[in-house]
Amino acid sequence: MTGRVPAHGSIKHSIRHERQRSSTLEEDDQVPLNKIVIPILGFPLGFYMAAQGSLIVFVVMLFVFARQQDKIDREFGVAEDE
Q: Whole-prediction pTM value?
């Protein structure tokens, strides 16, 4: 009989094995960056990089939105004179 469905126990085993494998990969990916601590501040490197990255993204977003708003203002004739 082709296309046979595996026994119930083997499905449980494969799901459990996949969960263990994925959790191990997640732990391995997260641990090295957070083990490094910035000496002066005492924060883990991962936290520091995320905090700095979010600030940079915020500032870039401000410039992009300001540029878009200027284009809209000029299109509708309400732009401020410089």
A: 0.52
